[in-house]
Amino acid sequence: MQWINFYIAILFLLPFNQSMENVDVYLNDASNARMLKKVNRVRSTGCFCGRKYMPATTPLKWNDTLYKSALGHAKEMTRYNFFAHFSINGDDIGDRLESFGYDWQIAGENLGEGQKSFEEVLQDWLDSKSHCKMLLNPKVNEMAVATHGRFWVQHFGKTMPPNTVRKGRLK
Predict the structure, then answer these.
(1) pLDDT digits over 11-27, tens only?
(2) Quick check: 108 and 66 in contact, CB under 8 A?
(3) If 0-12 CB within 10 Å is exposed, 13-18 middle and 19+ buried, where does residue 59 land?
(4) How many other CB atoms sit within 10 Å of the CB of residue 35?
(5) Crossing angle (nearest 10°) for helices 118-127 and 29-45
């Protein structure tokens, strides 16, 4: 009887007439820790990105603000059916991070489309020279990964030092 009540409760929590493409995959702390561990394992050993060897580097920390920004971009790509590092209004990752209050010194982004698991998207990123270099970039110290619909977004960052003001950006 308990299971029936559980399933009935779940049914009332799910929206009706919604395709799975529009359902968020909210990741829990265990999922975040698993993804972070896998990325940090790659960073701890180093690897070839194309023909260039990227040496081992420092581990990353999970950042919830980077997650919110990544999820926002994944949702936008799903809603408007596009795949790009720029938002539909022309914002880049720096603009998106600033809109979430992340005072970035260094920012980076990896995108994936169609992968069924984090392991699959991570392997695709490692097989891509530019994505691999971002994964092993020693200048970043935080990351997050979000998925929505068929899209994966990984954001990297390092915040500005205290009492530092950004003087402007090239656009």
Answers:
(1) 333 333 333 344 444 46
(2) no
(3) middle
(4) 20
(5) 30
